UniProtKB/TrEMBL annotation:
Enzyme class: hydrolase
Keyword flag Hydrolase: yes
Pfam families linked to this entry: Palm_thioest
Coiled coil: none
Protein name as annotated: Palmitoyl-protein thioesterase 1
Alphabetic keyword roster: Disulfide bond, Glycoprotein, Hydrolase, Membrane, Signal, Transmembrane, Transmembrane helix
Native source organism of the sequence: Tilletiopsis washingtonensis
Entries under PANTHER family matching the protein: PALMITOYL-PROTEIN THIOESTERASE 1, PALMITOYL-PROTEIN THIOESTERASE/DOLICHYLDIPHOSPHATASE 1
Gene3D superfamilies reported for this sequence: alpha/beta hydrolase
Family per record: Belongs to the palmitoyl-protein thioesterase family.
Stretch forming the signal peptide: 1-16
Length: 380
């Protein structure tokens, strides 16, 4: 993971924070889940957590971990059962008292779809904004090449030779559990029959209403794709896009340069609203953002799309229940084109006051019109 200019950007956020104000602004807690080959204990992830704490004083940051040391946590990114890992993360988050009032979540690469699985499967966990960098929401149709010195990757690559849809791969090799190649009729059928992770959380088999309901409870779902990404195939999976599902007459393959992924808003997952993504979109809560660079090259411009906007913001108002906040967000987006989750609390207050003033003016105007009408009738 490459955080280019991370410290200068977050230092700028810190300099803008009201550290010397009479009261300190509160920030919504944030949960981070690292990507494949990384660890919650790596220098990069620990530095990111520290930078967020400096930039947003008082913010609580939790790093999801599946083991108690760097090497074991890194290994868990390659080997393990994703269902067990998501369950473990669910229980871990429930035990952190600072997160019991809800939190925002950021997933890096593989960590993004794992965090989404937590949102959908973990009852009782309240995620407000979900942000994913270069994640594989519609799976991958090819595996990235291992670096020569990456022993864990080489071991996983060797194990995959036994078959990506084997019982072993689908319960022990993490990347195999989000492998999805829809360009092969036989391969896609086997994927649906054997995959228990990405096919499940995308509601491709059984439609689970609770998955849709919990996704709809998000205020924002922000997906970031890297324009030069050659690690994720197709890179548009980061935007919930996929190659078309093959049929018996199909002749194209995933590596065919003429084959283009179907954009999210043209896919059945969206048009049939299987996961509530269309519903989120209608209130301005679904964002597809583009970062310049290769996979996980998170430069300052990329960070500005997220931090201080969806991460590092005030907690949601306790005066308005979540359902009412979402209706308000939909009204804002439909009438003014404003994305409610990206607006500061002060802006919401100002809009509500303006709405109240408008309603009051309409009432006064209606009363005046009524008096004139009745006056004219009496004179007649």
């Amino acid at each position: 993971m490459k955080f280019l200019s991370l410290l200068p950007f977050l230092a700028l956020c810190a300099s803008a924070s009201p550290l010397h104000a009479p009261f300190r602004r509160a920030f919504h807690p944030v949960v981070l889940w690292h990507g494949l080959g990384d660890s919650a204990y790596s220098e990069g992830m620990l530095s990111l957590a520290a930078s967020l704490r400096d930039a947003f004083p008082g913010i609580f940051v939790h790093l999801v971990h599946l083991a108690d040391d760097l090497a074991a946590d890194q290994r868990a990114g390659f080997f393990g059962d994703t269902t067990q890992q998501v369950n473990a993360a669910c229980e871990q988050l429930k035990q952190v008292k600072e997160l019991q009032g809800g939190f925002d979540a950021v997933g890096f690469s593989q960590g993004g779809q794992l965090l989404r699985a937590v949102v959908q499967r973990c009852e009782g966990v309240q995620v407000r904004n979900l942000v994913t960098f270069g994640s594989q929401h519609m799976g991958i149709s090819d595996f990235p090449a291992c670096k020569p010195a990456d022993l864990l990757c080489r071991l996983a690559e060797g194990a995959l030779r036994g078959g990506v849809y084997s019982d072993y791969a689908q319960t022990h090799l993490v990347s195999a559990q989000y492998y999805r190649d829809p360009t092969s009729v036989a391969g896609y059928a086997r994927y649906l029959a054997t995959n228990h992770f990405i096919a499940d959380i995308n509601n491709e088999r059984e439609r689970k209403g609770e998955y849709k309901e919990r996704m709809q409870a998000l205020e924002s779902f922000v997906m970031l794709m890297f324009d030069k990404d050659i690690t994720v195939e197709p890179k548009q999976s980061s935007w919930f896009a996929s190659y078309p599902i093959a049929n018996a007459s199909s002749s194209t393959l995933a590596h065919d340069p003429a084959l283009e992924p179907t954009p999210l808003r043209q896919s059945v997952i969206y048009t049939e609203d299987r996961l509530g993504l269309q519903s989120i979109d209608k209130r301005g809560g679904l964002l597809l953002e583009l970062c310049r660079g290769v996979h996980m090259q998170i430069d300052e411009a990329c960070q500005r799309l997220v931090f201080g906007k969806y991460i590092g913001t005030s907690p949601p108002s306790r005066l308005l229940p979540g359902a009412l906040r979402r209706r308000w967000a939909r009204a804002l987006y439909a009438t003014l084109g404003l994305r409610g989750a990206a607006l500061p609390t002060e802006a919401h207050a100002a809009l509500l006051l303006a709405l109240a003033a408008l309603l009051q003016a309409l009432v006064v105007c209606a009363a005046a019109v009524r008096r004139r009408m009745f006056g004219a009738i009496r004179l007649a």
